[in-house]
Amino acid sequence: MGSRCSRRLVLILSIAVLHAQIIEFESGGLKYKTMTRNGVTVMFATLPRHVRDYAILQVAISNGSPVSWAIKPEDFRFEKPDGQVIRALPAKTVVDTLLEKAGRNDVIKMISAYEAGLYGNSEMHSTNGYESRRQNALAELGSGKLKAAAAASAIALVTTKLMPGQSTDGAIFYPNQGKPLGVGHLVVNAAGETFNFPVEAPKHGS
What we know:
Helix content is 33%, strand content 32%.
């Protein structure tokens, strides 16, 4: 009996420690959650606007560990209470769809929402994220010729090898028929760890 109670206490404490690692804050009109495991920090927020059939998250990853880690959109999956799992799409799949089908106004609004969150968040400092990708696109196309869809391609999180001290950010896209992801868990497999974030329903009016 005592052994069973002891195991149960250890389990409860382990769960408490796990949830204590999740930090929540608001910035730029977005609600962020962040967690650090094995020296790597993952941060995310749900963007309020969808494009085409995609629900979109803004994510940032910072490598504070002594070794390099590869990060890719496919590391992020969303698990719903009914057991359904939605996996984030590779950047190339998303970019090809945006270039082919996305309306210019929708893309511009998505870019505005992403940049508002990015530049309003004092906790997000990427060494090779969206801003550097956008600058590369500007250099290649010229500021006067940059199309909205090409700018959107700079937003998508791409497969990146993060060296110690480096960080990146980007948008990840879930095919969800243009609906919000809703309640569930964002699960991220990165840095040899599993990051598990509970995602609650947005409050009425938020």
